Amino acid sequence: MSTPEQLYEGKAKILYRTEDPEILLAHFKDDATAFNAQKRGEIAGKGDINCAITAHLFRQLEAAGIPTHFIEQVGATEMRVQALKILPLEVVVRNIAAGSLCQQTGLKLGTPLSQPLVEFYYKNDALGDPLLTRDRLFLLELATPDQVEQLTHLALQINQLLSQFFGQCGITLVDFKLEFGLDREQRLRLADEISPDTCRLWNQTESDPDLRVMDKDRFRRDLGNVEVAYQQVLERVLAQAMQ
């Protein structure tokens, strides 16, 4: 069997070509990065955990009518996905003030937002993935006005579905990052992953600000027990998915 041709390697995944040009193989890595890759490390078992969580959540979203690139999980760290033209945007949805929102606005960590906040960031490592106004987004021709409206609508739908699901897992969805791409019919589909790498997740039964963290902030902030937190998220997701 020939070695698949590598198409792209990112911070957390490698994409390989398959015999079908419309289908790619996504391999989830144990590599961990933070602060625009200024901090690097490895989280043991992260690839397995994030692949499994993403597969389960994408199935949940597909069942609720959200179009995604997910086809099937074919290994512990691998899934088959539909090839898309990825938009150079990160769509961030925030429910509670944390991270850069606190740093840039002065809001206190943990402040509930009156309504979900949808933000767009330019997916460009050289520029540090800057926050965009809609006018700047259109100036750079990163998406059309119609696509931005669709992205906002999809992001809010996904937020409602994920917030409910994680809530049933005893986890608060603080904020999360999404990526989207266009298929052959120019239809927007959710891409990338949904995992503790791309979400802020807080344990609802823990009040301590550090102990409640169940996501990559444990790596960013050197809180320790990163692997344990990721595994706990997986176990709760799997348990809830089986109900």
TrEMBL record:
Name of the coding gene: purC
Listed GO biological process terms: 'de novo' IMP biosynthetic process; cobalamin biosynthetic process
NCBIfam families according to UniProt: purC
SAICAR synthetase/ADE2 N-terminal domain span: 6-236
Catalytic activity from the UniProt record: 5-amino-1-(5-phospho-D-ribosyl)imidazole-4-carboxylate + L-aspartate + ATP = (2S)-2-[5-amino-1-(5-phospho-beta-D-ribosyl)imidazole-4-carboxamido]succinate + ADP + phosphate + 2 H(+)
Pathways involved: Purine metabolism; IMP biosynthesis via de novo pathway; 5-amino-1-(5-phospho-D-ribosyl)imidazole-4-carboxamide from 5-amino-1-(5-phospho-D-ribosyl)imidazole-4-carboxylate: step 1/2
Designated name of the protein: Phosphoribosylaminoimidazole-succinocarboxamide synthase
Annotated EC: 6.3.2.6
Protein species of origin: uncultured Synechococcales cyanobacterium
Transmembrane recorded as keyword: no
Domain of life where this protein originates: Bacteria
SUPFAM superfamilies listed in its UniProt record: SAICAR synthase-like (SSF56104)
GO molecular function, one term: phosphoribosylaminoimidazolesuccinocarboxamide synthase activity
InterPro entries: SAICAR_synt/ADE2_N, SAICAR_synt_PurC, SAICAR_synth, SAICAR_synthetase, SAICAR_synthetase_CS
Family: Belongs to the SAICAR synthetase family.
Keywords for the protein's UniProt record, in alphabetical order: ATP-binding, Ligase, Nucleotide-binding, Purine biosynthesis
Pfam family, one: SAICAR_synt
